[in-house]
């Protein structure tokens, strides 16, 4: 009997980014669902129960920072690993994302193999690790 592949939720408001990440992560053996704004992201978390979320900060309707805060405040989702990908660069933005509940912050552009490695590490650890 084979184990189901991990389910990854990718959240970004740019369709080409969503498509590229979905394709790459599926090529790596993950199952991928997507959302294009913060409200849809929360809905997908509660409906799809992903194993990990890859989240942009600059989203319509509800910011990625707020999505993190809401997920961390909910006992059902407080342990969901969240990797933030953002065009916002700088120490202040990284610290704000981590303070909101992100497990990791990667600045765009990023190396996809680095993201895949971080996803695998977080899934294997079974616990939140704040860097």
A few lines on this structure:
The protein is an alpha/beta fold and 131 residues long. 44% of the residues lie in helices and 18% in strands. Strand 3 (52-56), helix 3 (64-73) and strand 4 form a beta-alpha-beta unit.
Describe the structure.
- The chain is α/β, with parallel strands linked by helices and 131 residues long.
- It has one domain (7-124): 3-Layer(aba) Sandwich (Rossmann fold), CATH 3.40.50.
- The protein contains five helices and five strands; from the N terminus they run βαβαβαβαβα.
- It has helices at residues 15-27, 38-48, 64-73, 91-100, 112-125; strands at residues 7-11, 31-35, 52-56, 82-86, 104-107.
- It has a five-stranded parallel beta sheet with strand order 2-1-3-4-5, with helices on both faces.
- β4, α4 (91-100) and β5 (104-107) form a beta-alpha-beta unit.
- The longest helix is centred in the C-terminal third of the chain and has 14 residues, at 112-125.
- It is globular, with a radius of gyration of 13 Å.
- It starts with 6 loop residues before the first strand and ends in a 6-residue tail after the last helix.
- Residues 127-131 have low confidence and may be disordered.
The residue-averaged pLDDT reads 91
CATH class: Alpha Beta
Report the major sheet: 5 strands, parallel
Helix content class: 40-55%
Number of domains: 1
Uncertain residue segments: 127-131
Helix tally equals: 5
Strand content: 15-25%
Q: What order do the SSEs take from the amino end to the carboxyl end, as H and E?
A: EHEHEHEHEH
- Please state the CA-atom Rg, rounded to the nearest Å: 13 Å
CATH topology: Rossmann fold
The 3D shape can be described as globular
Distance between the termini: 35 Å
> CATH homologous superfamily, by name?
Response regulator
- What is the strand tally? 5
CATH architecture: 3-Layer(aba) Sandwich
């Amino acid at each position: 009997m084979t184990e189901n592949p991990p389910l990854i939720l990718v959240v970004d408001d740019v369709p080409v980014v969503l498509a590229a990440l979905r394709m790459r992560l599926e090529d790596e053996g993950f199952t991928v669902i997507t959302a294009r704004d913060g409200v849809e992201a929360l809905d997908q978390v509660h409906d799809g129960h992903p194993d990990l979320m890859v989240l942009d900060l600059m989203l319509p309707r509800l910011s990625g920072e707020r999505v993190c805060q809401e997920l961390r405040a909910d006992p059902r989702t407080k342990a969901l690993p969240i990797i933030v990908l953002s065009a916002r660069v700088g120490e202040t933005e990284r610290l704000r994302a981590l303070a909101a509940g992100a497990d990791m912050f990667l600045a765009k552009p990023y190396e996809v193999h680095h993201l895949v490695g971080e996803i695998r590490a977080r899934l294997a650890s079974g616990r939140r690790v704040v860097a």
